[in-house]
Amino acid sequence: MTIQKFFFKVLSLPLFNTEKVYCFYLEKKQRLGFQKIHTKDCELLPEKKARFKLGYFDNYEELIDHAKNEYGDVKLCELCCNTEAES
Ligand SMILES: [Zn+2]
Questions:
Q1: What is the largest CA-CA distance in the chain?
Q2: How far apart are the CA of 41 and the centre of ligand 1, in A?
């Protein structure tokens, strides 16, 4: 396998495996004992220096597990992370 083919394979995998993948960010500032998680497009997303990048996740369970392990108490933003918004 050539280097180019190898990189193409690695880079293209996430695009084909999942339909929706969002980049999530965590507010550095705690509110009421929690740090809030936002998506990249959220209106309430703080400016760059006031947030951590959590990375790309395609489900909330994985996202919350990861964020809790790394940062402690976290909550999803009601505006951009509405888990009941499917209907
Ligand atoms: Zn938000």
A1: 53
A2: 8
Is position 44 within any domain? Answer: yes
- CA of 17 from ligand 1 middle (Å) equals 25
How many domains in the chain?
Answer: 1
Q: Measured in angstroms, how far is the CA atom of residue 18 from the centroid of ligand 1?
A: 22
Question: Model-level pTM?
Answer: 0.71
Residue type, 73: D
Distance from the Cα of residue 83 to its chain's centroid? 14
Q: How far is the CA of 6 from the centre of ligand 1 (A)?
A: 36
What percent of the chain clears pLDDT 70, i.e. is strictly above it? 71
Ranges of residues in the chain with a pLDDT under 50 are 13-18, 86-87
